[in-house]
Amino acid sequence: MARLTGRNALVTGGARGLGAAQCLTLAREGARVAVADVDVGAAEELANRINADDGHAVAVALDVTQEAQWERALDEAEGELGALDILVNNAGIAALGNAEDTTLEDWRRVMAVNLDGVFLGTRAGIRRMKTRGGSIVNISSVKGIVADTFTAAYDAAKAGVRNFTKSAALHCASSGYGIRVNSVHPSYIMTDMVKDAASTVPDPDGFLAMVLAKHPMGRLCEPEDVANAVLFLASDESRYINGSEIVVDGGYTAQ
Ligand SMILES: NC(=O)c1ccc[n+]([C@@H]2O[C@H](COP(=O)([O-])OP(=O)(O)OC[C@H]3O[C@@H](n4cnc5c(N)ncnc54)[C@H](O)[C@@H]3O)[C@@H](O)[C@H]2O)c1
Fold it and tell me: Catalytic site residue 188?
């Protein structure tokens, strides 16, 4: 029996990168999956791919920063799939800048997607799942634990996700909701987010070499490494893991 048979999941930013790998992994393990993304065309492509492969998926349009869109997106997903059991708040963006040169515009853009979006999603997920229980997984980063000079806004948002996750977990536990809330902290993965960020610096190859050098295992993280941690947190195998953080970084934060 697959590990998520009969479960319904929604993954934000599910159309590409880490989110797409999570959708594919959850579907492979038997979950019905709502691929939620601002890029609804790409979300539809992935949902079609999952359905063509004997899975069950729907695409849902969602900008995680828009409070009003959350209710509609969850209504749509639950209308197609049934009541939600698993919510992965994965959508995120990057901006390069240090504590001195980051613009307020960049700061607010990063906070809106990476922190407001996780707050709105977690809150909406709790309200939906509180009578049946479930699992909420928030994608933070190693940069929610350790910082770099060049990702000031991103580091602040991801640290916010880390402790907000714990607050939400404590609230759900003390309320007797049966909802677990945990965070996942990947190191660098070569997705569009990282490629796009690298393309904005004067020496992209030097930037990527510097990033690789931070990884003790000599390779970057892969989308599947993160998806497997999400799968574990989504499944009952992690039933006593709550308010916790799973680091998927090949030793990056052990140094
Ligand atoms: N790639 C890495 O190195 C890395 C490392 C640690 C953590 N993360 C985190 O993993 C998550 C996914 O990152 P990725 O590398 O796959 O990025 P990506 O850019 O490859 O994909 C992000 C997806 O999110 C969607 N998205 C962006 N803004 C959105 C919004 N407002 N509402 C809904 N969807 C939105 C995009 O359309 C895209 O499909 C992010 O939270 C990121 O911070 C990434």
Answer: no
- The top-level CATH class assigned to 8-188+222-244 is alpha beta
Residues with CB under 6 A from ligand 1: 12-13, 15-19, 37-39, 62-65, 90-93, 113, 117, 139, 141, 186, 188-189, 191-194
Residues 6+ apart with CB under 8 A from 19: 11, 12, 13, 35, 37, 88, 90, 91
pLDDT in tens, 55-82: 999 999 999 999 999 999 999 999 999 9
Distance of alpha carbon 140 from alpha carbon 186, whole angstroms: 7
Which is it for strands 57-61 and 86-89: parallel, antiparallel or unpaired?
A: unpaired
pLDDT in tens, 213-228: 999 999 999 999 999 9
The residue with tokens 């709105």 is 120
